[in-house]
Design goal:
By secondary structure, this protein is an all-alpha fold. It contains two helices and no strands. The radius of gyration is 14 Å and the shape is elongated.
Length: 67
């Protein structure tokens, strides 16, 4: 899911996957450094994945002309 690959099949890129992994790693370390419980990283991860799925659906509908 990280890096632009679609849940329904499609393509992704190595650069996108690396950037996605880097962002998640930096956020996890940042949450640890500021003293917030590590469970909040899971909340962040879930929220980002939810937004990514919703954004993917919006883009797919625009491209295919669905409503």
């Amino acid at each position: 899911m990280i890096g632009g690959s679609l849940l329904t099949g499609g393509y992704g890129s190595v650069i996108g996957a690396c950037l996605g992994a880097l962002i998640f790693g930096v956020v996890q370390i940042g949450i640890l450094f500021i003293g917030v419980p590590n469970d909040w990283f899971r909340v962040f991860l879930g929220a980002v994945l939810l937004v990514a799925v919703l954004f993917n659906n919006v883009i797919r509908r625009r491209v295919t002309g669905e409503r």
